[in-house]
DNA sequence: GTATGGATCTTCT
DNA sequence: GAAGATCCATACA
C-alpha cells in the first residue's frame, strides 16, 4: 500500500525526514530511501524559486506527484512534490539501499558493487529505470510508488545540501545514520552534521 | 586516497 | 549563450 497524498501534504522538511526509511518501488526494483534533500520555493536553490514556468509546473502539482527532470544533460533526478498546489516544494531522493531487483539494477548500471548501484541521485534513477516520462506521474497510484518503511524509523543526521551554489547553508539534507549506501557521509570540509529529532512518523 | 576535467542537454536569459 | 540538485575515468600523491 502506497503512502497517500496526506503524507506529502505537510511541510517539505518534515516529509524529507519521514521519507528516509521508506521504500521506493519501480517495477521489480525497490530500494530503502537512506538520503533525501528538501527544496522549497522560498529559497533560491529550488527550481520553483523563479516561479511557475513550463519546467517548474510539476512542482505546483498535487502533493505526491513525481517531479523528474534532467540534470547536467545526462542524469534524471527524482523528487516527491510536497505541500499544497500553491507551494513549489519537493523532496529530492538522493540515495537508496537496494532491496529487490538487484539483477536488473546491475544490468542497467553495468556495475556489480551493491553499494555503488544507488548511492547518488543520478545512479538510483538509472538503476530503477526511472525516465523523464515519469515526470508528473503519481507516486500514490504508480507506476513509481513509495511504500512506508517496515522497520523502526532510522536515526537521522541533517547536513548541508550537495551540488548546489545557492542557499548552501540550509541543513536540509537528511541521511540515515550509519548507512553504507548514502551518497556521501557528509559534505567534505563542512562541520559534522547535527543529529535531528524526527518530527513525527506518518502512519 | 584525493583532485580534475569531460560528457551532454534542458531551461531560461 | 550560459548554467546546472551528476557521474566517471584518469592522473597524481
How would you characterize the overall build of this protein?
The chain has helices at residues 5-8, 12-19, 102-109, 121-128; strands spanning 23-26, 29-40, 66-71, 75-81, 89-100, 144-147, 156-159, 173-176, 194-196. The longest helix has 8 residues, at 12-19. The N and C termini lie close together (11 Å). The protein is α+β, with helices and mostly antiparallel strands and 203 residues long. It has a single domain, classed as Methylpurine-DNA glycosylase (MPG) (3-methyladenine DNA Glycosylase, Chain A). The protein binds a DNA duplex (13 and 13 nucleotides) through strand 3, strand 4 and helix 4.
User: Between the first and last Cα atoms, what is the distance in angstroms?
Assistant: 11 Å
Shape: globular
Specify the helix fraction band.
10-25%
Count of the domains: 1
Number of strands: 9
SS class: alpha+beta
The description of the largest β-sheet is:
9 strands, antiparallel
| Low-confidence spans | 187-192, 197-203
Question: Layout of helices and strands, plus pairs?
Answer:
Elements: H1 5-8, H2 12-19, E1 23-26, E2 29-40, E3 66-71, E4 75-81, E5 89-100, H3 102-109, H4 121-128, E6 144-147, E7 156-159, E8 173-176, E9 194-196
Antiparallel strand pairs: 1-2, 1-6, 2-5, 2-8, 3-4, 4-5, 7-8, 7-9
The structure holds a DNA duplex (13 and 13 nucleotides).
